[in-house]
Amino acid sequence: MKKLGYAIYGLVGAGLVLAGFATTEKGLKENNRTELDRVVEDYKELGDMGFRGFCPMDYKVAFSNGEKDVVVDYSDGDYKVTERDAVYGGLVGSIYKNGSEYEVVVPEYDTWITIQNAGGGEQLSTVIWHESFHAYQNSYCKIEDMAEGEILTETELAERIDNNPEKKDLYQKEMDILGELTKEENSCDAKEIAIKYITVAEERNGLLTDEENRSEELYEMMEGSAYYVESKAVNYENGEAVYRKNYLNTASKCSEGNSKYYRHGMLECMLLDELDPEWKDSYSFDRTLDEVIAEYVAE
């Protein structure tokens, strides 16, 4: 099996790294601590978002400038801080397996806000939500165990699909069907959407190789659910207008490149919310999102 990648932001160039604010305890900058405080406060309202056992603060968070990581371990209101050489050569949002534990690695705030052009609306805290969900998927649900046989990288997979007009067109049809959920005045029945979606998905799956099917299902489940969690955090932190603009309005329009798997999986999670608000109670990444939707269609 090829190693699965979780980096969602690959950033190159020392010029992106600004001089930091004054530090507080052991190298933890005040603005980085503010982002962690935000996650802690968000959790009081958002909780596990229905994914049993998920808590973003269960995982250490490393703020990286590409050369040094400042690793923060949160426990009952206290931050324990250590420093180490950066575990990744570039600036990324990802997870890192340190022994038997998974950690979150994100750019430090000064770098992040520069990349966002100081006006993108998205907080670094929501990236922590996204990546901590990947840590949860692996530590709690063992999602990598689902990857049997060869798994294509996201880039390889996207290129294969994007270069095949029939596969690509049917993927866009799937996205259009799921996109009905994002309309401000959604009058469609969720079961009806699910039936139309599964019908097209089954037709399209017949065109894919086993390797392509496994890879798509894994990325949609793995990245799509993390993107869903991220979107919920953005909605809470930044409000409905930003959430709709940055997530809902663009979700079904993205049919090329790696990002389609993030959006597709998010829309599948949204459909499942409509079919059964309690669907996550018994979900532990033991089935693909398509399989769960198909179960509701069959009922």
Which segments are poorly predicted (pLDDT under 50) over 5 or more consecutive residues? 5-25
Order of helices and strands: HEEEEEHHHHHHHHH
Question: Could you tell me the number of beta strands?
Answer: 5
The major β-sheet equals: 5 strands, mixed
Q: With helices defined by DSSP (H or I, 4 residues minimum), what is the helix count?
A: 10
Helix residue percentage? 40-55%
* Whole-number mean pLDDT: 86
Give the C-alpha Rg.
19 Å
Oligomeric grouping of the chains: single chain
Structural class: alpha+beta
What gap, in angstroms, lies between the N and C termini? 35 Å
- Write down the overall geometry: globular
Q: Strand order, biggest sheet?
A: 3-2-1-5-4
In terms of DSSP E residues, the strand content is: 5-15%
